[in-house]
Design brief:
- The protein has 276 residues and is mainly β.
- The protein has helices at residues 58-66, 79-82, 255-261, and strands at 2-3, 19-21, 33-34, 70-71, 74-75, 85-90, 99-103, 114-118, 121-124, 134-140, 149-155, 161-169, 172-175, 177-179, 185-187, 191-193, 201-206, 209-217, 227-237, 240-253.
- The chain has one domain.
- The protein contains three helices and 20 strands.
- It has a five-stranded antiparallel β-sheet.
- It starts with a strand and ends in a 15-residue tail after the last helix.
- Residues 1-66 have low confidence and may be disordered.
- Residues 37-68 have a biased composition (Low complexity).
Length: 276
């Protein structure tokens, strides 16, 4: 059974993800190393701390979209940028040269901003005000696509995590999103709840695409909790994700059967099939 799904578009600013149930371990452990600033200087570390991320000004977001020599409201010589932590190294351009993925601290004028060097400036991920800071990152390699994608993780204090995928396009970090069915789009990978014994999600990378499998509450709801398992293939093209039809692969699966029939949904790593 298939359900037609509208194309997934990229957006300049992400929104809060819709919660889906899952019992999964964390994506990757964050690193605390430092990198020299783009000017060649180095400084002390300003690690991020748990909690909500304050928003940034409109001027900071405009600078991020243009890929200029600012990170939010902070310039290259600021203490926040020079002291940003390195989370990973990812070859976003596909030229064989991984670049450091860094995040600013949770205080100051440009809190919790993820950025990478591009030319003489930066490509900066859109701000996610009101959400926890990014605490880990990794490369996602899609076969047949030039350059890796960047996956970031936000760990929520009450349990759960949000994974986001970005492509570097024209000096910007652009998030891959799915149509939210309303006024807002959603992250391509749904929110993963770690504090509820419910369904799950997994992703694997195929030729030129990311295949997302989800266990969602069965509809219509019955007396006993059950799940439907659905799978959608998103083609990755020029920094965007385009959804194909959604296929229902299983119907009315009981919780005790879910792990046996679909072990990847309850595995330790949502992006296990997309390691760089």
């Amino acid at each position: 059974m298939t359900m037609d799904t509208p194309p997934v578009r990229r957006r300049p600013r992400p929104t809060t993800a819709a919660a889906v149930a899952a019992a999964l371990a964390l994506l990757v452990a964050g690193c605390g190393s430092q990198e020299p600033s783009p000017t060649g200087s180095s400084s002390g570390s300003q690690g991020s701390s748990p909690g909500s991320s304050p928003g940034s000004s409109a001027s900071g977001d405009a600078a991020a979209g243009a890929g200029t020599a600012t990170v939010g409201d902070c310039d290259a010589g600021s203490a926040a940028v020079r002291g940003a932590r390195t989370l990973a190294r990812v070859d976003l351009s596909g030229d064989g040269t991984p670049v450091p993925v860094r995040v600013t601290g949770s205080s100051g004028r440009c809190p919790d901003r993820v950025f990478v060097p591009v030319g003489d400036g930066f490509a900066v991920a859109p701000a996610t005000p009101g959400e926890p800071p990014v605490d880990a990152a990794q490369a996602v390699v899609v076969p047949g696509v030039d350059g890796a994608l960047l996956a970031t993780r936000q760990s929520h204090p009450r349990g759960g995590l949000q994974l986001r995928l970005y492509a570097e396009e024209d000096g910007r970090l652009v998030e891959l999103v799915r149509d939210g069915g309303g006024a807002t789009d959603q992250p391509l990978l749904p929110f993963v709840a770690l504090d509820a014994p419910t369904g799950g999600v997994s992703a694997r990378c195929a030729d030129g695409a990311i295949v997302v499998t989800e266990a969602v509450a069965h509809e219509p709801a019955g007396v006993v909790m059950a799940y439907d398992v659905r799978r959608t293939t998103y083609a990755v093209r020029d920094g965007e994700a385009v959804a194909g039809p959604t296929e229902k692969t299983a119907d009315n699966v009981l919780p005790a059967q879910l792990g046996r029939r679909f072990p990847d949904l309850l595995g330790p790593d949502v992006l296990e099939g997309c390691r760089g």
